[in-house]
Amino acid sequence: MSLSERDRELSGTLQALIWGYMPARVVHATAHFGIPDLLADGPKTAEALAQATDTSADPMLRLLRALATLGLLEDIGHSGFCLTALGSQLRSDVPGSLRNLALMYGGERAWRSWGELLHCLKTGESGTRRIYGMGSFEYLAAHPDQAVIFNGAMAENTQRVTQALIAAYDFSKFRKIIDVGGGNGALLGAMIAANPGIRGVVFDLPRGNAEAPVRLANAGVAESCEVVAGDFFRSVPEGADAYILKSIIHDWDDDQSLAILKNCREAMHRNSKILLLERVMPEKMEPTPANRRMAMADMNMLAMPGGRERTGKEYRALLARADLSISRILAIPGLDIAVVEAVRS
User: Fold this and answer.
1) What pTM does this model have?
2) 213 and 81 part of one domain
3) Which end of the chain is less packed: N or C, by CB atoms within 10 Å?
């Protein structure tokens, strides 16, 4: 029996999903060899790129052809290939670069961790722990080269969301903000630059906020900020009007998340707020691009760090266990994340 046009369409859609890992690996190889940086000053041939990357010319040509079909490069004939606007986002020197993200999600740790998905589904154990015998953050501490890529990807993500976040939420009402797990201080620095008069603290492990002093100085807010080293599983500095946790709670299971939130609750004064900057999963999933991104992010939490994305209902239940209640959930236009604003119950 021949397939109907509708059946052929469905088959094509499903085949694209089955082959979905292939473009991801192509993009990772492109970032790994720095091809977009090499094309930044104009088109090059496969031979020239192969020589510059210490690869072979014929396989390089095949990679470049694949990139042209993905819209990352343009095939311009005998002159070789040139970078498109889409491909330019993989350059290392452009605002909003996605190069580190491509290196992280196409790299060995992600690849091997996702390879354990069946085990994850059977046991709830993350693929990273199954493969390496340690959690994601322990792995990064033991592999500084991978930590550089991870920190770069997180910084790129923060850069992409910061301006939309500042435009959507009024931070000027706070006198003191503590960014819990604030890394290099990029988010807090932008908030204070946009709202002079606020004082801030970047709170993270020593290896997490080591770059913060330089970043805050470059943002012109060093005199308004303090960099404090510590472990949010042990305690959090007291006395802030707002405790910001960007993409922190989703990294951990409920018990670990509860420990962090209880420490924040202990540090709060009567009128403090906790601001979780997280994806908030819809209660009912639909086959939309936004829902798909959230669902795949949740599966990645299962495969790699062992955390999870949560619905609004799940956040309410988790926060209630820490004696906190949600005052509102504010979606950020143009982004997949929201501000989950919580107060003392």
Assistant:
1) 0.90
2) no
3) N
Type of residue numbered 103: L
pLDDT at site 161: 87
At position 55, the amino acid (one-letter code) is: T
Q: CB–CB of 76/82 below 8 Å?
A: yes
Question: Which residues are CB-contacts of 211 (< 8 A; sequence separation ≥ 6)?
Answer: 151, 183, 184, 185
Per-residue pLDDT at 1:
58
**Which of the 8 DSSP states describes residue 331?**
E
Tokens 């009567």 sit at which residue?
A: 270
Q: Is 60 within 8 Å of 51 (Cβ atoms)?
A: no
63 and 28 in contact (C-beta within 8 Å)?
no
Tokens, residue 201: 């603290």
pLDDT beneath 50, residues of the chain: none
Rounded to 5 degrees, what angle do the CA atoms 238, 341, 321 make?
Answer: 75
Q: What are phi and psi of 340, to 5 degrees?
A: -95, 105
Within 8 A by CB and 6+ apart from 5, the residues are none
Per-residue pLDDT, 185: 92
Instruction: Please report how many Cα atoms fall inside a 13 Å half-sphere around the Cα of residue 200, on the Cβ side.
Output: 31
In single-letter form, the type of residue at position 295 comes to A
- Helices 254-267 and 312-321 pack at an angle, to 10 degrees, of 60
Spatial neighbors of 32 by CB under 8 A, at least 6 apart, are 103, 106
Instruction: Give the per-residue pLDDT at 157.
Output: 83
Share of the chain above pLDDT 70, in %: 100
To 5 degrees, how large is the angle CA 132–CA 134–CA 138? 115
Chain-centroid distance of CA 256 in Å reads: 20
* Domain-embedded: residue 289: no
277 and 164 part of one domain: yes
Residues 36 and 171 in one domain: no
Tokens of 139: 């792995």
Q: Which residues are catalytic?
A: 250
Query: End of a domain among 45, 70, 94?
Result: 94
Count CB neighbours of 337 within 10 A.
20
Q: State the average pLDDT for the chain.
A: 94
